[in-house]
């Protein structure tokens, strides 16, 4: 799991700036934190797409906002989840063999190993993916007297191929530094805004 935390230090400094409205310091702070959380969430959706063939809509479900409150002046965005289906990365079909690429630095390559060739299919529930044949299902009786096993769609097992998880795509120094910078800049901007707003209403 990857976590990008957003919090404000120096509540006394904020109270001093607010003067007679110092009781509103937690309000200015938690609102600024939540504004930063929203901005950072948007940025975290974009980051993987710079290096990997993945759309923001496929990154977003792995991200979660943790908002601050007046009594808890901390916010965060966490990235969790399993590896994404390979189908959600760049893919194509050539001569019946699926091709795919996870990183933008790579071109799609045919997914075949020996007699195993990946293919694109839609399951009965409507789910589309890239799959690989695994041969006969274990523990299933497929042999009749005087006959040898034959692989058919009824007794063959398949597995879906996957790429990287969102945490894996974010887990590098450059990405985390970029995210932290966006969070800090937005936090400072919005804290200034909320302090001035409170003072203007006085």
Overview of the molecule:
The strands form 4 sheets. Strands 1-3-2 form a 3-stranded antiparallel beta sheet. A 3-stranded antiparallel beta sheet has the order 4-5-6, with no helix packed on it. It has helices spanning 11-18, 25-46, 48-51, 56-59, 166-170, 173-201; strands at residues 2-7, 63-66, 74-79, 90-94, 97-101, 109-110, 112-113, 116-117, 119-122, 128-136, 156-160. α2 (25-46) runs antiparallel to α6 (173-201). 26% of the residues are buried. The chain has 202 residues and is an alpha+beta fold. The chain contains 6 helices and 11 strands. The two termini are 44 Å apart.
In short:
The chain has helices at 11-18, 25-46, 48-51, 56-59, 166-170, 173-201, and strands at residues 2-7, 63-66, 74-79, 90-94, 97-101, 109-110, 112-113, 116-117, 119-122, 128-136, 156-160. The chain has 202 residues and is an alpha+beta fold. Helix 2 packs antiparallel against helix 6 (173-201).
